[in-house]
């Protein structure tokens, strides 16, 4: 039986630091359930952001995965070094900032990304993984978010959560909420509930410039209560594109489907 995570944390003096988004999960059964979400990882490579004391890291190693983990808090490195000794050749820990490293080079094409993300950088990292060349270098994303962010990622038109993040996550990938996680599962407990989102890449609709789609949704949802004819009028050609596609310019951003945004962006690309 591995040492209880509570003892690992006490032994290494890893009191959680709020500024690093540290809310640790100590329940090994819950960690094993999260590690199972991507499907079989036996022999696969996993890229983990923020291993902390190493609870999720061990659960991933137990599946037979090879893990490349990047941790910003140097206090965690001795605990992670113990795990490296226990799983020789299977775990590589990088000391650094996930926002700055060349993750593709470190983890390699085809890696699965699994992380209990620090909340302060979670959305920035997700957008980075959703942008860029397609198909992406990663095979799947299994990520813990605040529940409200998870709902924005999977939201459908008409929902109050539907917005730029929903379109970014759905136009060429398929997200789902895989697990709700109660706040009491973390030490210390955050103020709000969390959820694990699982995202797999899908085919990319042809002829769409991702930057144009991003600009379009930024304009539309930037003024989500306004009619499209007012919110997107600053984009050259947008009003013509609405007319050509038969999209009523009096509709508001939150009623426009992902497919309609894609069709509009294609016209403007
Ligand atoms: N994986 C552990 C768990 O599930 O209990 C810890 C998760 S905790 C929510 C987030 C972790 O990310 C912390 O260990 C924190 O130090 C680390 N972290 C915060 N910002 C980071 C960054 N920019 N790059 C890498 N790690 C970061």
From TrEMBL:
Report the subcellular localization: Cytoplasm
Provide the residue positions that the database annotates as binding S-adenosyl-L-methionine.
23, 25, 50, 71, 97, 116
Ranges of residues in domain Ribosomal RNA adenine methylase transferase N-terminal? 30-203
Catalytic activity from the UniProt record: adenosine(1518)/adenosine(1519) in 16S rRNA + 4 S-adenosyl-L-methionine = N(6)-dimethyladenosine(1518)/N(6)-dimethyladenosine(1519) in 16S rRNA + 4 S-adenosyl-L-homocysteine + 4 H(+)
Q: Is rRNA processing a UniProt keyword of this protein?
A: yes
| PROSITE patterns, per database record | RRNA_A_DIMETH, SAM_RNA_A_N6_MT
* Pfam families per record: RrnaAD
* CDD domains referenced in this protein's UniProt entry, alphabetically: AdoMet_MTases
Q: Which InterPro entries match?
A: KsgA/Erm, rRNA_Ade_diMease-like_C, rRNA_Ade_Mease_Trfase_CS, rRNA_Ade_methylase_Trfase_N, rRNA_adenine_dimethylase, SAM-dependent_MTases_sf
Q: According to the UniProt entry, what is the EC number of this protein?
A: 2.1.1.182
User: Which GO CC annotations does the UniProt entry carry?
Assistant: cytosol
Write one Gene Ontology MF term. 16S rRNA (adenine(1518)-N(6)/adenine(1519)-N(6))-dimethyltransferase activity
**Keywords associated with the record:** Cytoplasm, Methyltransferase, RNA-binding, rRNA processing, S-adenosyl-L-methionine, Transferase
Which HAMAP family has this protein been placed in?
Answer: 16SrRNA_methyltr_A
State the protein's purpose: Specifically dimethylates two adjacent adenosines (A1518 and A1519) in the loop of a conserved hairpin near the 3'-end of 16S rRNA in the 30S particle. May play a critical role in biogenesis of 30S subunits.
Question: Which protein family is named in the record?
Answer: Belongs to the class I-like SAM-binding methyltransferase superfamily. rRNA adenine N(6)-methyltransferase family. RsmA subfamily.
The molecule here is called Ribosomal RNA small subunit methyltransferase A
Specify the species.
Sphingomonas cremea
